[in-house]
Amino acid sequence: MKIIEELEKKLELSISRIALAKKQLEKNEAGTLKLSFMVKASTELSIERNTFLVNKYKYKLRKLEQEDKKDLEENEKSKEIIRENNYFKYQPQRIKHTKNRNEKEIASALSTLKDMPEDVKLDDKEIFEISHKSAELFLDIHSDLDDDLIEIKSEFLALIEDNFNDVNNELKLLNYRIPIIILQLRILLKNIRENIEESKLEKYKFKGLPKFEDWWIHEMWTSHQAYMGLFKWKQIILDLCISSEQKRAFEVIFKNWILVKKMLNVKGVFAYFYNYAFDKMIFKYAELESEEDEANLNTMKIIVEKLTKQENFFSVSDSHNIVTPYMKFKIEKEMENNKDDKGKI
Amino acid sequence: MKSIIALEKIVKDLEVRIAVSKGQLARHNSGEERLSLLAEASADNSLENHTPLLEEYRKLLKELIKFDKSDSYEHRRLRSAVERKKYYKYNVKKIKKQRFRENDERIEAAMIIDELPEEIILENQELFEMSTRNMHQYLIFSDDSKTELNDIQEEFNTLIKGFTDENIKSLELLNYMIPILIFHFNVFIQNIIESKNNESEEKITELDFFPKYHDWWINELWESHISYFSLIKWKNDVEKECLERKQEKAWTILFNNWIFVKTLISEKSELAFEYQYIFDSLLKKYVKLESELDKKIVKNSKKEMNLYIESEDLLSLLPRHHVLTPYVKYKISNKKNL
Question: How confident is the model at residue B85 (pLDDT cuts 50, 70, 90)?
């Protein structure tokens, strides 16, 4: 029984303390050990206090022995259960008020706690450890994004499913890439909005992403003006991104978007329904839309013409490098292959 | 239950730590490596602390798996996102860090998302039909075409089999597109050879048709104008060599698909170099399409390109140019019908 064991331990400790103190006092009197006045007083006090405790523990033990041991055991068990139940019952509140953790850590721990099945009980330390790892791996964010992606994907697939035939079956290869592009642009747009709100630059009244023009995609690789239109449009959105993460993200999203749009454009009339579903979804989720007003389209054409006249076409990007890492890799690979071929001869 | 993924990672990290400490101590005891007193104590300490922790977390993981299978769709997706983070981070290192904002975590996580490998499953027959149906209007397929596509696909699959990297495996869209594209290139060149043989008495069996392209054009497309002009000039130079209108059309499609594939692989950077090399090598083998590897020639070509840009009419448009494309008209009418 726990309580008896604890009392016996305490009793033993007090008895040994008394013995040690008595020994010291004897040595002092015999002259083998010199105790200072203060130490002597404290030793005497210790004998006095521990003698009192010994009596107290002995009395308690006698009393306990008289009681029914079974009752005691049960009583102890139920106290333990209550303690444990309370530990888990108040775990969320306790975590909420943990002093040495910041808000983000606490929120993450609460989310981990919520994620656990009811029958699995973890102590606070384990909850914090798992939630720390989850945050490090962005698991909460990934999980949310996953839900969004599933929603976008099923909506997109529902829009296109009845339109496939032998001629356009190939488009199915893009079924999974498109929802990802839409989701990525949606998150970036959200970031851009937050940036503008945070910087409180009211003069920037953000009215959404600039509209793209379908003829830029249609005439890409044939009219330089189409390239310029796309390039300038991309530049405007890049300027809205603040951090290098955001800029990099848009570079990737833009490339993926233009690759898919051009592929659909090349397939022409067979892909209209698919292209339309893509545009519809990206407008719904990421507010990206095309300009369809002829007058606006013509005005923009004049603007792009003007910009072309001012553009320095010989300037290169900051990361300009004509001997790319891949080219170096390729040269090495070719040299290796040539060596192998010579070896064979 | 996403905590399973976190726990798996905790267990994996602990296993690595324990293995490192054990290795250090084993080398120290065998005399292979000399640890300082402090380092030895720290390795000992690490073993002592981490071993019971590992046991504790393994037990917990086992318990959680009872409630939720560890190979559910959600878990596979999360696990692959965690894996992909490695290569995304790897790429980020190379760009100059400006400011990291709190909301960047979200966009970073979103950019890690990629397709899961098992989402597209096509049978060989389906693949063949898909690849020939649309190109039929521009290319003439021979009776052996089906075998050719199968052979190319088999060769490609054998070459990429060795990759164990999750990121490479997940290039599933490309795994389907690449063999089809190589196959189309092959048929395209065979068609050109046939046209040439029909026109002249001298019969040829192979052809050096493509000028060499430069790798950096792909890397810097949409960043440095000169790469766009280089690519469009290269595209037009090939187009001029086509003998029929249909071949020009086929080339436009091939060019776009080639850019598509090259850009997607380039995005994966160093981790997909081997993969990109396989794609390039197959194109070189089948149709002699290859990149310029002579650094001098690559460097000198920039001057040539500057002259080309100066000579171009940058404001010119398609002869039948109209801002309202047929697709936009379709879109407008569709919206009206709603």
Answer: low
